[in-house]
């Protein structure tokens, strides 16, 4: 049935009132008529759902108007394709951004319900893993705040990554059932459902004019069904859409099989489809895991592109204006197959000539690279693509032929350079390089920090940069100050407002006005009191979840992020062991009480990362119960790290650990969140730390360790790190204690290989940076004992965080890559 034309002046209901009385009445109405509960017997989760529905109604008014405005004005739209969107809890975010926090709080108070309890009850949306997904969420919020018409496209995971629990110190992965009781924020869009195909064959078709076109005939089909979630901008300026795809079978049950008694076989199509959107990042260590991962990536890329093309044709009628009205940003390599899929749609389904289609494709796509790690730059076996996506493999080969011809004939590349830019890696079995595909199919390729962007030009994309020197640009990451300062630290926000006014709420750069107050003793006292209250809140969380008692007067030394060897949680816990030895050996010294706080998930198949988690918990078990330490050192690993836990930890941190091996962290955004909340960074000159150092100045950050160039030089010489260990008695004793089983008496050899790797190769420079790290931590303790100096540093960190706002980042994307206007 053809769609009815959109009528811009169609009638709409009056916007919902925002008075306390109106909200209170609607919460009760929703409780009774939508949730089906009498207030007398309603439980907290009932009140939560009723409150969300009342808040959501007030968001809907702005959502509808935002959509109508885009259609009326024909503004260019931005489409952000990402396999992750770590949006966290939405109710507080929405209430804060549309100015409903106080009236909702009062309305619930009148009903004898505490808003804080409801906020803590809302489940986190399990739609991401770490920084990549949280960045995407911050970007969507900033696009709404800056009035950029935008859609986020991803997958509606049933379980997301996993729920992390601890069993005797080991990480255990369990399903994250965040959708078990429904999601009141989402709307199913049954009309926005698209067929996605796999397998089959490609057949040449002769058109009447003699032209031969290729037609892909998949032998497997499933449906991608859209679920929409509103993303509210600051002060309700605009509400954009996060559209997530759910995989559903076209025929949920094969009735003939069911009736013949094959009940399991009758449901195989349903199970096969639902597997695609079951979990985030299925283990790809097996061929079956690789296939599922590729299916996920193509599934959401194809559905998103079909949706984008449908919307564009509905409004404009033809595809020649695609780059003028559509900007698609590929968030890392996960949606890189979109380049081949868009070419297929343009050439095969819309009859556009190859050269014209390639011009449209490049003009539409931008690609954000997030890593220099070879294992994170995805590649897929050619045989897998040929079987699963045969037409796309043909298109990849055709693109590659054009690129290599250009490289040879126009740029004069030699054989090695040709191999480097090729979309097909010929080493150890042919594989399609998705990073190269995203690069050649985009008009813009950006890094996410100044250092990372420079390294892209010198390393992974060096020859592609020589071929297309105008494409690589930098867009340093940012965080939304609404969630990561105003919402997670309301007491600090209130204090700053009282001191410098409220202009910074709308322009975070105006936090610079706080810097002159850094030395004010009265303000320092108030600033420290806010931090202490936040620490007391975290103390209660640690006690409730781990049964570990810590003092809020101690230095809270925090490292929370994905567990990976290059992020060097191992360096941090080795320091804890060395400090433990020093405290016991020198009880006569004055020691700064310290709590080392860790959180983060390890990929299920990443053995060393999981072993590091176990080591942290083993060290905690010994150190926390040793009376000789006298409570001067505590270690805590908080399981199931997510956005909500971060919102509790970040405002309470005194010291922010950003200690990755130089040259390996693309940017980092945790460092920015800590900075906003007045934590001091101890870090290497890596990722965005370089720019943080520039913003706060040398006196307000603690930098240590080798530079990127020094790390590269050490690696190039294949230098054995044993000599560095032998020269450092403190390090040697700590490593021997760990390797010999002091912290693992049940299995003395548990950490032998992990520590042995530091002696053999030490790729991540843990041993060779240890002494510099120790000295930096000594400097931290000196600073901590001078509380006036420490507080001034903390205030200056908050005052100078404005550059790291995602609003600044998105303005740069809008101006330099997308060509759209911002508010």
From TrEMBL:
EC number: 2.4.1.1
Superkingdom of origin organism: Bacteria
Pfam families on file: Phosphorylase
Keywords assigned: Allosteric enzyme, Carbohydrate metabolism, Cytoplasm, Glycosyltransferase, Pyridoxal phosphate, Transferase
Entry-linked CDD domains: GT35_Glycogen_Phosphorylase
Enzyme class: transferase
Keyword Ligase on entry: no
Entry's localization field: Cytoplasm
Purpose: Phosphorylase is an important allosteric enzyme in carbohydrate metabolism. Enzymes from different sources differ in their regulatory mechanisms and in their natural substrates. However, all known phosphorylases share catalytic and structural properties.
Modified residues (N6-(pyridoxal phosphate)lysine): 673
InterPro entries xrefs: Glycg_phsphrylas, Glyco_trans_35
Protein name, UniProt field: Alpha-1,4 glucan phosphorylase
Keyword Oxidoreductase annotated: no
GO cellular component, one term: cytoplasm
Family statement: Belongs to the glycogen phosphorylase family.
Cofactor list: pyridoxal 5'-phosphate
GO BP term, example: glycogen catabolic process
GO MF annotation terms: glycogen phosphorylase activity; pyridoxal phosphate binding
Catalysed reactions, semicolon-separated: [(1->4)-alpha-D-glucosyl](n) + phosphate = [(1->4)-alpha-D-glucosyl](n-1) + alpha-D-glucose 1-phosphate
